[in-house]
Amino acid sequence: MVRSLFFLVSALAIIGSVAHAAVVEYTFEVANLTITRLCKSKVITAVNGTLPGPTIEVNEGDTLKVHVINISPYNMSIHWHGVFQMLSGWADGPDMITQCPIRPGKRYTYQFNVTGQEGTLWWHSHVSVHRATVYGALIIRPRGGRQAYPFPKPFKEVPILLGEWWIDDVVDVHHQAYLTGGAPNISDAFTINGKPGDLYNCSSTEIYKMEVEQGKTYMLRIINAALGNQLFFKVAGHSFTVVAVDASYTKPYKTDVVVLGPGQTVDALMVANAPPARYYMAAQAYITTAPPPPPRPPFDNTTTTGIVEYNSTNPSSQHVTATMPSFFDSGIADHFSTNLTSLVRPGDPTVPLQMDERMFVVYGFGIAACEPGQVLCNQTQGALAARMNNVSFQSPTTMSLLEAHFKGVNGIYTSDFPQKPPMTFDYTNASVNAAPAPQPLMFTARATKLKKLKYNSTVEMVLQNTAILGVENHPMHLHGFNFFVLAQGYGNYNATTAVKRYNLVDPQVRNTIGVPAGGWTVIRFTANNPGVWIMHCHLDAHLSIGLAMAFEVENGPTPETTLPPPPPDFPSC
Ligand SMILES: *[C@@H]1O[C@H](CO)[C@@H](O)[C@H](O)[C@H]1NC(C)=O
Ligand SMILES: *[C@@H]1O[C@H](CO)[C@@H](O)[C@H](O)[C@H]1NC(C)=O
Ligand SMILES: *[C@@H]1O[C@H](CO)[C@@H](O)[C@H](O)[C@H]1NC(C)=O
Ligand SMILES: *[C@@H]1O[C@H](CO)[C@@H](O)[C@H](O)[C@H]1NC(C)=O
Ligand SMILES: *[C@@H]1O[C@H](CO)[C@@H](O)[C@H](O)[C@H]1NC(C)=O
Ligand SMILES: *[C@@H]1O[C@H](CO)[C@@H](O)[C@H](O)[C@H]1NC(C)=O
Ligand SMILES: *[C@@H]1O[C@H](CO)[C@@H](O)[C@H](O)[C@H]1NC(C)=O
Ligand SMILES: *[C@@H]1O[C@H](CO)[C@@H](O)[C@H](O)[C@H]1NC(C)=O
Ligand SMILES: *[C@@H]1O[C@H](CO)[C@@H](O)[C@H](O)[C@H]1NC(C)=O
Ligand SMILES: *[C@@H]1O[C@H](CO)[C@@H](O)[C@H](O)[C@H]1NC(C)=O
Ligand SMILES: *[C@@H]1O[C@H](CO)[C@@H](O)[C@H](O)[C@H]1NC(C)=O
Ligand SMILES: *[C@@H]1O[C@H](CO)[C@@H](O)[C@H](O)[C@H]1NC(C)=O
Ligand SMILES: [Cu+2]
């Protein structure tokens, strides 16, 4: 029965695919916005005066044009998180990777086709810390419209953007961390669709409310837009069926808790089948940093809330509260993150089996020399840094990587990102932290190293966390591609045992994967998109201290596999 329903839906999708692809246009004005949260008024940077910013809606196959006008006082760029950007790398957005920023007073039109992916993605600033407030949803429906979903059409679709809020100016918070070479201050609140909810002091009216009707099915398009936290999300009295993650369909997966790392999205169906009342929705941090040494760093232990209200609720009825998991419940998180599988449909990409490139990437924290601008940095000790294969990524300053790649300009980067770490050690053994000084494994250097890939080459990457200066789950995000997640585990990767666990049939397909704290993850992708693509930790504080590398994917043999030149209004430095 389920199967025949599925084939009917597929047939409709094919009929629907004759529908014309449209050109969809939006205008985004990025500007100061004075806003009050937690009883304190402040100026933030926002798009069109709203937090979150406008929701973009397209059908698969459409051409999207977004005119970004920057009237904020800051350099700006927008990244379309998870969009493949096939042959349109000039529109990907990361500052100094694919473009120079849009300077204050300037504008740039991002133009690209949204092809070969459906579900929930999002957009956010990719300059410094500005994604704290410059973000919004990007919804991709099937070409055939809502009736072409590979699951029963929901009654309504509701974006749920989970954010993070600082009472202080985020630019100041970020700058202070830079000056000291340490970690930034933790946030004061989490938010649901821009609102903290009623568990914070003097914020009881700043709460997101969703109205539901008894018996109807709602699709929650949940996005973790937080800067530095993985999150648990629940709705009291209700359960979910997950049908997609990162705009890639999954086999229906039933759960009463959704777990998202920063950058990840989950599409979850929720049936309003509880007795009419007001039910809390809630999100709170999932913490993976673990002692012993060093002690667990401070974290934002607050809970953001929203309300799911049945339209037939008696006004005097009580709120039903959600019971959240413990902050440290890795059992719940791992169960969710490892049990998802993809819905493999005819014509979908399959896991590459012949590998052209095998990379073993050991990554985590380290110590680097203080930079000249880091005036409060302890010169003896050095600054906190993050690294992949012992390279702490440094952004170029005079020309973007993509432009340098396209024009063949030397001196901006080198193409020698290492295939494996420079030294082997017991990566996840915390005793590395107790080694006598000077501790050689602690030190790292900053550089701009890229990994060159032939067009269409297949890549396997083992991502191995280290315990140096503490373990933590790092959500790794790849631009330009989705990847298959073959296996994940704790401890040191061991090929002999790991290979037996690889899911080569229906692994989850993602653009962002949380690599377990003190563990490893194996991913594969096909480099079928020429350009320069950054891969980085989506914890903002880790990206800014170098937890990144980039791929340089060569052109293919034909005009259809060659990156076109940049558009005429492309920003220059
Ligand atoms: C954003 O604001 C601009 C300027 O007022 C307006 O032209 C545009 O339509 C708005 N965009 C959205 C998505 O609301
Ligand atoms: C925007 O806000 C900043 C302070 O955050 C202020 O310095 C600047 O003058 C404001 N710009 C405009 C155009 O209001
Ligand atoms: C985007 O789609 C349009 C219309 O289908 C097509 O003409 C154009 O070549 C596509 N652009 C890219 C970069 O694929
Ligand atoms: C960070 O937190 C410390 C301690 O609470 C405080 O003194 C400092 O002003 C904060 N920094 C910023 C930039 O808000
Ligand atoms: C809320 O305000 C009360 C009274 O001012 C204070 O004691 C408490 O610490 C505050 N709680 C938070 C979470 O800020
Ligand atoms: C959150 O952390 C603060 C400061 O450490 C502590 O006082 C408070 O009890 C914690 N609250 C929860 C809910 O864990
Ligand atoms: C809830 O909404 C539905 C659909 O509009 C309507 O039929 C029903 O009467 C409403 N219930 C109440 C109590 O308003
Ligand atoms: C995946 O789900 C199955 C059955 O629901 C369970 O037995 C298994 O432990 C789960 N895997 C993980 C890693 O939690
Ligand atoms: C700088 O770091 C060194 C080595 O860890 C430590 O001994 C010294 O106290 C630190 N200095 C300051 C000013 O914190
Ligand atoms: C790239 O690989 C795909 C299969 O993985 C193949 O269909 C396609 O022809 C290849 N393209 C080129 C130009 O080699
Ligand atoms: C990897 O696992 C195999 C099989 O359990 C074991 O024999 C081998 O010693 C392990 N290798 C390492 C480096 O631990
Ligand atoms: C803004 O971008 C320009 C061009 O890349 C750069 O020179 C300048 O330093 C940037 N400004 C800030 C405040 O980062
Ligand atoms: Cu990280």
Automatic annotation (TrEMBL):
| Co-factor requirement | Cu cation
* Gene3D superfamilies for this protein: Cupredoxins - blue copper proteins
Its EC number is: 1.10.3.2
The organism's superkingdom is given as Eukaryota
Asked if the record carries the keyword Oxidoreductase, the reply is yes
Where in or outside the cell it occurs: the entry states: Secreted, Extracellular space, Apoplast
GO-annotated molecular function: copper ion binding; hydroquinone:oxygen oxidoreductase activity
Q: Which UniProt keywords apply?
A: Apoplast, Copper, Lignin degradation, Metal-binding, Oxidoreductase, Repeat, Secreted, Signal
Q: Major place of localization? A: secreted
Look up the signal peptide feature and give its range: 1-21
Query: Which residues belong to any copy of the Plastocyanin-like domain?
Result: 30-143, 157-312, 416-555
The GO biological-process annotations, alphabetized, read as: lignin catabolic process
**Which Gene Ontology cellular component annotation is one that this UniProt entry carries?**
apoplast
- Please verify whether the record's keywords include DNA repair: no
Main EC class the enzyme belongs to:
oxidoreductase
- Pfam families for the chain: Cu-oxidase (PF00394), Cu-oxidase_2 (PF07731), Cu-oxidase_3 (PF07732)
The note on the cofactor says: Binds 4 Cu cations per monomer.
Which reaction(s) are listed as its catalytic activity?
A: 4 hydroquinone + O2 = 4 benzosemiquinone + 2 H2O
The family annotation for this protein states: Belongs to the multicopper oxidase family.
Q: What does this protein do?
A: Lignin degradation and detoxification of lignin-derived products.
Write down what this protein is called. Laccase
Organism in which the protein naturally occurs: Phoenix dactylifera (Date palm)
